[in-house]
Structure to design on (794 residues):
């Protein structure tokens, strides 16, 4: 008998609700809550079978969250709302003594930082209260860190070079759309690049470093070095790492659109006074861009995300490439959303399962690579995100 | 002794105020009014000498306009506000019996039409009231139509082919900015192309037809066939015209920015509900783009706008090219605004002068080519917009 509360009814929330509903042996009672209850109701209705209860909650407001958590009494809260809301939801979990899981780190509204410091600062309070918090349990961050932990456990004595590679070779047929919340997506992609090398962070201009990389079943795609949040926890948790980088593929048209969006001021995250109202340009842009949750139907092609690792095993140099490919159409047929939401929602579901089955349970605030990767890796293969590994191949990096 | 009221305190209003202030022999008393009085005060202060009185008025509201006109009692109202406001200002002039002049045709808020029909519909009422209304007295529309009338009067028995060519070879040093109100600019440029041929309008896809044209003192620039409002009145007033087209130069980067602005939905003119407020994307975009009035200081290079005409004189084929080149820096030094505002504001000033000196005065609503071009052409040479003419040259079109 377990109870889980999902907060957030976007594409990822849709996937999490679908997946959890299909696993009654783990998730007995499921509540889906968001600012807009009708979005939850629509998802619940599509899933059917009275599997999903729904509720309205403003995740910016701790008292509202506390009241809802106290009335439903979940064993864990799965936060797939906006990253701005991580701290209020963590506060509410702390106050009610309920476990916490999310898929993206907290981000202040007024600056794009992608740092874990605000959430890590909760560690002692969670530890003292005997509550588990699992941070960044989507695909990236999430599975990429678990892949790294799996590699460290089974295939390396020391990891020296880590390159996380994220390719979306899908085509949604729109001139421009982002694959998840445009506000977060554009913030992430337009920031300066950053990677870890020899004990310090090296900063680059946005998209300054790029090269073609070959992705399995896809082929060559221009890949750009960007900063991604899991690098911060991975270099802390795997101190033998000499260099850690993150690469993402972008099409030329996508980058042109981003460049223009910045040039015209629509990527700004500071408010502009308009008709007496404070309006943040990137938030308004989100309102006019295609809804990422609705891209699924015509989305064709695959994503390919993985880790390319070099290091030492038994005194010898070794290379290792572990990845998952996910097909947009297959994801859509199962859950009604495309692969970018699917690859985030399935790991969040598995993470909650790990907690509820006692495999990932420890008082404090943890990144996913701090837990045993093996049971999680086993579930990935069963729950729609099978992985492949290649040993001693040319990893190009 | 004459009194003139300028409505609108943008770049064009700034130029009109400067020019009128420098011509006390024509403009004895000048009032500058706009929605934001502080903008008028700033312009008046810069001009100095107590030449400009200022007032606040909401040009969307006829009663407010009527009250202000009745209190100041101008001989003519020069409308350099938004094209949306042409009809309310025309209503107020009709009610108060005051002459009217504008620089751009009325446009309904909810559709981009660029048609004169709404304003032409006032003709009988203005005629019956004995009031003069002068439409489209900027550069284009405006001087381009006066150039055509001048050509028809002095150099042609029949004009057959008219090509208006508008080149802005200036560089403002910003990644993207529009030269006048971005809302109107983007509406105009992103619409379908349209030209007159053999008694009917031919429609093209946006930017479908383009070719390099050579501009005097500038060189070759890719020029795009777009629709421009003066074509409508010119083919009506010069019925011998077999084909009338309008060409404008755009840089590749400018067009890329426009394409993206459309792709992302920011060129939309229908309201989007955001935070409970109706927001028209293109109006919000205007709020985040650089203010065209502030581009002047670093604007380098020239504009070149003119008419390339083919027709018959004394039974023989003839070509004729009449144009003005205007330097952004020179315009800025004189009035604090760049050439695009300057080339619009100076003709509006001369048009008001034509009315006040009795040279252009007739009850009814008129386009500028319906008046005698000669006194206007003479003033262009004296007031900062000298023109050149070339006979029997290769006009490329």
């Amino acid at each position: 008998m377990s109870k889980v509360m999902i907060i957030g009814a976007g594409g990822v929330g849709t996937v999490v609700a679908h997946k959890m509903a299909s696993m009654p042996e783990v998730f007995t009672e499921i509540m889906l809550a968001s600012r807009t209850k009708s979005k939850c109701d629509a998802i619940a209705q599509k899933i059917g079978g009275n599997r999903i209860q729904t509720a309205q909650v403003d995740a910016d407001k701790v008292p509202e969250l506390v009241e809802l958590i106290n009335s439903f009494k979940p064993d864990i809260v799965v936060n797939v709302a906006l990253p701005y809301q991580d701290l209020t939801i963590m506060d509410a979990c702390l106050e009610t003594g309920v476990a916490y899981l999310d898929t993206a780190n907290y981000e202040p509204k007024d600056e794009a930082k992608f740092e874990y410091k605000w959430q890590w600062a909760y560690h002692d309070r969670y530890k003292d209260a005997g509550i588990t918090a699992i941070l960044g349990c989507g695909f990236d961050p999430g599975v990429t860190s678990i892949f790294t932990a799996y590699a460290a456990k089974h295939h390396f004595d020391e990891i020296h070079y880590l390159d996380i590679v994220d390719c979306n070779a899908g085509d949604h047929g729109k001139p421009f759309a982002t694959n998840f919340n445009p506000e977060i997506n554009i913030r992430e992609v337009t920031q300066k690049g950053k990677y870890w090398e020899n004990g310090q962070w090296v900063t680059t201009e946005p998209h300054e470093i790029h090269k073609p990389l070959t992705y399995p079943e896809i082929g060559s795609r221009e890949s750009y070095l960007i900063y991604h949040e899991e690098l911060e926890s991975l270099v802390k948790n795997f101190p033998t790492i000499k260099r850690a980088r993150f690469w993402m593929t972008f099409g030329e048209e996508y980058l042109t659109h981003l460049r223009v969006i910045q040039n015209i001021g629509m990527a700004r995250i500071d408010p502009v006074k308009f008709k007496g109202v404070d309006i943040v340009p990137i938030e308004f842009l989100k309102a006019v861009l295609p809804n990422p949750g609705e891209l699924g139907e015509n989305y064709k092609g695959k994503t390919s995300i993985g880790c390319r690792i070099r290091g030492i095993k038994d005194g010898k140099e070794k290379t290792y490439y572990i990845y998952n490919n996910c097909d947009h159409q297959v994801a859509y047929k199962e859950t009604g959303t495309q692969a970018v939401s699917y690859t985030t929602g399935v790991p969040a579901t598995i993470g909650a399962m790990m907690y509820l089955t006692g495999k990932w349970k420890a008082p404090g605030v943890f990144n996913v690579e701090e837990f045993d990767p093996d049971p999680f890796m086993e579930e990935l293969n069963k729950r729609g995100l099978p992985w492949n590994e290649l040993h001693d191949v040319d990893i190009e990096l």
Observations:
- The CA atoms of residues 70 and 96 of chain B lie 7 Å apart.
- The longest strand of chain B covers residues 302-313.
- Chain B has a mean pLDDT of 95.
- Chain B has 14 helices and 18 strands.
